Amino acid sequence: MGKVYIVGAGPGDSELISVRGKRLVENCDVLIYDRLISDDIIMSAGKDCEKIYVGKENGGHSIRQEKINKIIIDKARQGHIVVRLKGGDPFVFGRGGEEVLALMESNIDFEVVPGITSAIAVPEIGGIPVTHRGISQDIHIVTGHTAETEITDYEALARTKGTIVFLMAAHSIGSIAERLMEYGMDPKTPVAAIERGGAADERIIRTDLKNIRYERIKPPAVIVVGKTAEFDMVSESKRKTVAITGTEDFRNRLKAKLLKKDYIVKEACRLETVPNDIDIDIDTDEYDWLVFTGRNGVRIFFDYIKNRKKDLRNLKNKIAVIGQGTYDALAEYGIYADYMPPVYTSEELGKGLNNIAENESKLILRAENGSEEIYKYIKNYREVKLYSTKAEYITQCAEDYIVFGSSLGVNTYLDRYDIKDSTGIIAIGEVTCKALRTRGYDAYCCKSPTVEDIVEAIDRYEKIKTIENK
Ligand code: SAH
């Protein structure tokens, strides 16, 4: 018999899940999840993990609770470790309690892992404390779903001096406000509605009880009624979202640097490197030079050497690399490149090699769909296309910045989605920049194709924007 963990995922932002929750997601066999849960959390589950979406179907209705219970129970009975992931906290309007009861009835081992509830966190992210000494000494968390029924005691609520937090009330808040006023609540009571709290396109509407019905509020939203709704404790430097595109190695290195600066990082497009089936025997002895045009090529070439059980001591060639990243990747094998162009582009690599070794023979080890610029100058060569790059996953991100690590990333993403005018676009180099221009987008082109330069470009962008806004 397996076990079920009912885990709270927190509100929106993928970093607001508990450490325990994250570890359970990363290690479970089956992940059963709802709407409003960040893609990054879902993607952090293992490759072999079975992921089952049980949220609302497009525009339609939710899957019935009994059906969800049955899926959870069946998976646990099959002996799996199941994570049932729910937005916010599982026991705050999450129907987590019903799932627990069903598990108890079926004698299935379970645990509940708390989450950060949107009822408190979303106002907080919007700059509103739900309690404040001397102003609000109690919080009432209320669902707007039952607005038309008599379950909630609005008469009592109307008398409170504390804070009322409404969930699921985007459409019903107008009539709720009417009722509260009927029971005597001051029409001037401040109201704040926070849509998509924590997301890059978060919106806060501030008004009062009398006027809230004129606002069109889009779910998901948390609506705060009470004196604290007037507070605006948001720091000026709100975190910015950077969407990244590229291969795993590139994404990981860039992500680490961006997280260090506290940017929110979203993976907008994942490209996967797939080794080509190289059926020829690459005889490195025939060449004076081996030429690497990127890190992934280095890794895949050495995998090839290893798989064919070739001995590294036979590699007597001189080696040229496109730039520092590739130099470093090679250095990890204890090999130090003999040539690297002063500017890290494939055109410069071709030019440089032609200058120093025009007549020597070269073997170019590269990607199938990589840049062709190297061939402008280089002579006396043969090429082996070691691998190709394919799109593995694409999603649209509401981002402040988007970084493109290759023209393939540009084309893959733009075939599917547009980029907003307000988004800062960063291209790793000239070729990528050109691909963006062809599709009608202006981008900042990094001087050197390193993750350091990309982060610096974003920092610089941020500074310019701050000055413009002042
Ligand atoms: N268990 C969840 C609540 C589920 S009910 C929790 O503890 O947070 C779903 C409601 O939560 C939505 O209708 C909305 O009112 C609120 N909500 C969840 N995420 C939100 C977000 N990022 N921004 C605004 N409201 C959110």
Structural description of this entry:
- This protein is an alpha/beta fold and 470 residues long.
- The chain folds into three domains: 114 residues, 3-Layer(aba) Sandwich (Cobalt-precorrin-4 Transmethylase, domain 1); 111 residues, Methyltransferase, Cobalt-precorrin-4 Transmethylase, Domain 2, CATH 3.30.950.10; 168 residues, Rossmann fold (3-Layer(aba) Sandwich).
- The chain contains 14 helices and 19 strands.
- The strands form three sheets. The protein has a nine-stranded mixed β-sheet, sandwiched between helices.
- The model has no long low-confidence stretch (mean pLDDT 91).
- The structure holds S-adenosyl-L-homocysteine.
- The site of S-adenosyl-L-homocysteine has 24 residues, from helix 5 and strand 10.
